[in-house]
Amino acid sequence: MSTEKTEALVIRLADFSESSRVVTFFTRDFGKISALAKGAKRLKGPFEGALDLLSECHLVFIRKESSALDLATETQLIRRFQPHGKNLSSLYAGYYVAELLDGLTLEDDPHPHLYAAATDALLRLSLEDDHRLPVFQFELRLLHEIGHLPSFEACEICGRPVDSGETARFWVSQGGLICDKCGRPEYEHTSIHPETISVLRNLLRPSDVSSPSDPSLSSSSSLPLPPLASRELRRLLTAAIAHILERRPKMLAYLKF
């Protein structure tokens, strides 16, 4: 057993006893972990009220070598998630971030860039009244980090680059865009219009020229998001995520795009 320190987001809580909880954390250095927090329900204790859902904290925990739960021994609050104003969509969007982190990441698989993307998304959901761009950007980073980001540059059938001015198709089983020439009649309902492709590519534009494979998630808060692009992005990303989860994410039922 070893004692570890890291920064963490609380992404799930489950009662264990009258005074304790099992907490699922998404950590900066260790990825997703599940830990027993003894006395977490007490008003006074080593957790200082830092175990609310979506709270960011400094975490101290003891790693177990067997299949037993890790043991959380101390937390110090960094930031508590506060959705923007009285906007329930921002609250539900925060819960959606937690659902995706829990459902699409593996135990003990660190993704520090994804941790940064999640904390960035939650901060923006606290500051901005429109939840759509923070959610879209987080979903794209998540798919990128776990190796399931579809290709949005060339046709997956013929390999021809998809021009930004043409209407393409998106078929999740193909793993990306299908150009207009390769689109068959059964793909008609999956149309992705030029303005949506433009928005999508802007969302994926690198923030650092030295890291061209790293999508930007913090420089597009003022990016225009036309209604058509919002609807098509939602359909595209829902299809990609549901394909991996093998179900539609539950919190999407509460979000409007």
Could you please describe the fold and organization of this structure?
By secondary structure, the chain is an alpha+beta fold. It has 2 domains: 2-79, OB fold (Dihydrolipoamide Acetyltransferase, E2P), CATH 2.40.50.140; 88-150 and 181-254, de novo design (two linked rop proteins). 30% of the residues lie in helices and 21% in strands. It is built from 5 helices and 8 strands. The protein has a 5-stranded mixed β-barrel with strand order 1-2-3-5-4. The protein has a 3-stranded antiparallel β-sheet with strand order 7-6-8. Strand 4 (56-63) and strand 5 (70-79) form a beta hairpin. Helix 2 runs antiparallel to helix 3 (132-145) and helix 4 (194-203) packs across helix 5. The N and C termini lie far apart (46 Å). Residues 208-219 have low confidence and may be disordered.
Secondary-structure map with pairings?
Layout: E1 2-15, E2 21-27, E3 31-37, E4 56-63, E5 70-79, H1 88-104, H2 112-127, H3 132-145, E6 168-171, E7 176-178, E8 191-192, H4 194-203, H5 227-245
Helix pairs in contact: 1-2, 1-3, 2-3, 3-5, 4-5
